[in-house]
Amino acid sequence: MLGWNFQVPEHVVNGPRYNPNNGDEIIFIERPFGSQTQFHLHRYRISIGTDDVILSGSNLVNMSYPADWGSTGWLLLNLSSQTGSNIYKLMDNGDSLTQVTFTSMNFNPLWSPSGDSFGYQYQPGQQFAVKYEPSTGASDTLSGFFDQSSTWYTEEAVSTVSYTGVWNWDMASGEVHKVCELPAALDGTSTPAGTAMLPDGRTLVWAHIDGLFRTDMITGSTV
């Protein structure tokens, strides 16, 4: 039970994403003292421990995975604005912050592997998955999901992990296919939270209360 002496840790971090072109780099969000809106966006080099804050602000949409790193060097970030919760893009050096959606209630941005399009969840009441192509401005509303446990696996498939297993959603057909069951030894009452695709393009890393796991999306092997 939390008493009067409970203190929120000074540094709360979430949303790590690999650089898809360099497995030695990640971005992550720092929320000072657990703030719901204040944030610092970090770019971290793992091998040598360099840590650069590339963006700070007071308008973060408080979600587990509010940012994503695309193969073309652009990041996506979920921020609030006068029109509500929207998606922004910025270069991975922190330059050129640009708002790219304007309809509000937009969450969970994900780049496609090529960086030619991105997806997000639009929640005006119901939930809709939207695929958007920045170069043309074209958007499609799809029968599927871009949720907080999703990673864009191939150009036509999004992967996610739930308590029922590891899944692939085929965006063209709308069908969902099970890749594998979760390991039987896991606590079955807890839902996995958070996924990331390694730069090899086939290994999905996901978190669970029992630890970190890796699933080979080709063979379904999980360790």
Features:
about 220 residues, mainly beta, four-stranded antiparallel β-sheet, globular
Structure annotation, total helices: 0
Specify the structural class: mainly beta
What is the percent of helical residues? Answer: under 10%
Shape assignment: globular
Question: What do the pLDDT scores average to?
Answer: 87
Helix-strand pattern: EEEEEEEEEEEEEEEEEEE
Number of strands: 19
Runs in which pLDDT lies below 50 for 5 or more consecutive residues are none
* Termini gap: 34 Å
User: Nearest-angstrom radius of gyration?
Assistant: 17 Å
**Biggest β-sheet strands, sense, barrel:** 4 strands, antiparallel
Short description:
The chain is mostly beta strands. Helix content is 0%, strand content 52%.
